[in-house]
Specification:
By secondary structure, the chain is α+β, with helices and mostly antiparallel strands. The chain contains eight helices and ten strands.
Length: 218
C-alpha cells in the first residue's frame, strides 16, 4: 500500500512558479534512487510512496537511517547539495514512488531568492538530523530486545501482524539477522509474538509494550 499523494508545498510566488514547471517522476518499487559515491542530481520532494535510506557496512550489515514520506525530503540529498559532497548511504523505493526533483541550479537560486523555500529546506534538514540522531542513540544505548519490540509495535500500528523478514527487522534496529532471529524466538517462547514465514504476529501487545519500555537502557 502506498502513501497518499500530496501536492507540492506552498511557498511564495517565486518558488511556486518555478516548482510548478517541474515534471512528476515515477519510480517503481525496489528501484535504487542513489548509492554511496553518487552525486546528487537535485533536491527531492516525495509526492507519493516511501523511500528508505540506509547505510551498509563492509561486512554487509545494514543500518536503517530514516524513511522519506510524502511532503518530506532526504537529508542525505540536502547535505550533498549544500556541502557539494557525494552520497554516503543508499536509498531504495520501498513502494512505488512519485517525486519531483529540483535541479541543482534551481535549488541554489531558490535558496537565495525564496525565504519560504529556504526555511522549508533547513527546517526539514533539522527534522531529519533529529531522526538520524535518534537512530544512533537507539543503537548505542537501547538493548536489542527493546529496539526489536519498539520496531514491531511501530510497524504493526493498530494491527497485530507485521510483514517483514528478519533481515529487514535487523536493518531497522541496527543489528544482524542471526541476532534478530534468536531474539524473536525468545519473544515467541514468552508468548509475546507468534512467528510465521515472513510475518510476526503480536500475541501480547501489553507485554511487548512493557518490554519496549523496561529494557530501554544498557
Amino acid at each position: 500500500m502506498t502513501s497518499p499523494a500530496v501536492s507540492l508545498p506552498e511557498f511564495d510566488a517565486v518558488a511556486n512558479a518555478a516548482l510548478a514547471q517541474l515534471p512528476l517522476r515515477q519510480v517503481p518499487e525496489g528501484a535504487v534512487l542513489f548509492r554511496p559515491g553518487d552525486d546528487a542530481a537535485g533536491f527531492v520532494l516525495v509526492r507519493e510512496g516511501i523511500v528508505a535510506v540506509h547505510l551498509t557496512g563492509k561486512s554487509g550489515r545494514e543500518l536503517s537511517l530514516y524513511e522519506v514520506a510524502p511532503g518530506q525530503t532526504c537529508v542525505q540529498t540536502t547535505l550533498c547539495l549544500l556541502g557539494q559532497v557525494s552520497y554516503s548511504a543508499e536509498a531504495v523505493a520501498r513502494t512505488a514512488v512519485k517525486l519531483t526533483i529540483v535541479p541543482k541550479a534551481l535549488f541554489q537560486r531558490l535558496l537565495a531568492e525564496s525565504p519560504a523555500f529556504r526555511d522549508f529546506v533547513f527546517r526539514a534538514l533539522g527534522d531529519r538530523l533529529a531522526d538520524v540522531t535518534n537512530v544512533l542513540e537507539q543503537v548505542a544505548f537501547v538493548r536489542i530486545e527493546a529496539r526489536l519490540a519498539q520496531e514491531l509495535l511501530r510497524r504493526a500500528g493498530g494491527d497485530s501482524a507485521v510483514t517483514a523478514t528478519h533481515q529487514e527487522l535487523a536493518a531497522a534496529i541496527g543489528s544482524v539477522r542471526e541476532v534478530v532471529s534468536r531474539r524473536l524466538e525468545g519473544l515467541a517462547k514468552l508468548q509475546l509474538v507468534a512467528l510465521d514465514r515472513g510475518q510476526v504476529r503480536i500475541v501480547d501487545r501489553r507485554g511487548l509494550v512493557e518490554m519496549a519500555q523496561n529494557f530501554a537502557s544498557v
